[in-house]
Model the fold of this input.
Amino acid sequence: MHVKAAASQGKMDTPELRLAIKDELINREIMAQEAIKQGFDKQPETISQFELAKQTVLVNAFLQDYLKNHPISEDAIKQEYENIKQTTGSKEYNSRHILVKDEAEAKSIAAQLKKGGKFEDLAKKHSLDQGSRDKGGSLGWALPGNFTPTFAEALVNLKKGGVSAPVKSDAGWHLIKQEDVRDFKFPVYREVKANIMQRLQQQAIQKAIVDMRAKAKIE
Done:
């Protein structure tokens, strides 16, 4: 650890801190020299770790340099904010669901609901979703975008208290109940700006990696 690293952890730069860091560095150097005397630096496993550490340093240097020379503009962040805001919508829903393996079983449960069966009890008995089954199929409050498109479309088109026809997803077949709906207040720009910038940086880096892979010779 050096002084800057210690400061980043909230430690004050004092003579005592500098002395402690110096003492630690001396101890590390003594141990490293002893390790070399014992031949640890020649062991295959150690050499492999050396290469990995070197690669990590180089990758971090590349990333820092790339982000420095390809800054994300304020306009790009604001545009992404508006895109996310529009996609998210202005409503969130409190829902339940029953997940089963096939359509025939979903239709059978739907028939039981029509005969007066309680949604929560049928969810506890039949649903394959372990995360919600014991809660009577409750998924709590969530935005439609958190669900698969077919699930979300069925949910938003229900009336309060309504239950959907069987809906197919990659997980199986769902019966969905809309418990309630309320207005969703999207976070203001300043609250999410940093997260959006990080997201755009990650996208830019991934694109750069794709471009480099296209030009690289990988054996």
Observations:
- The mean pLDDT is 92.
- The first strand starts at residue 91 and ends at 100.
- The CA atoms of residues 100 and 126 lie 7 Å apart.
